[in-house]
Amino acid sequence: MRIAVYPGSFDPITIGHLDIIERASKVFDEIIVGVFVNPDKKGLFTISERVSLIERVTSNYPNVTVQSCSGLLVNFMKANNAKIIVKGLRAVSDFEYEFHMSMMNNKLEPTIETVFMMTSAKYLFLSSSSVRQIAMFGGCVKGLVPDEIIKDIMDKTSNNLGG
Ligand code: PNS
Known about the structure:
The chain is an alpha/beta fold.
């Protein structure tokens, strides 16, 4: 049984993330989407909100589950009997950070492998941070995030702007 974890902040999930989840779900027996707090990033959605948004848009994939996580990724992997980390790579600019993370995770737990999937060309420009910024300033996020969560993003950002 090949269990892979796809970790990230997912604040919010984009169609680029969903593309990786769908492709990874065909390669591995089970995908656990791990929603982590990234202390370096200011959050828009709470962790439990992110989990439920991801659950909503992945409900068609029977081998995909979603969990919130805190602490180290390698400990979460061990607790879930997973040996593979799946990450999406958009561009050379992602490489240095992802290379560093994969080396560090491998140092912490040598039995764990990181597998990189290249983002589909049409999603190369996409990031959660640009989605957050577009939504905050009243721009349209259609085509950037799954349609089912557009309203959640609009509600959240209009609340934020309205104080
Ligand atoms: O979507 P992101 O913000 O690029 O995801 C980063 C994430 C959550 C994968 C990364 O910050 C992470 O693995 N956090 C868990 C803590 C950890 O294990 N850090 C690795 C030691 S350097």
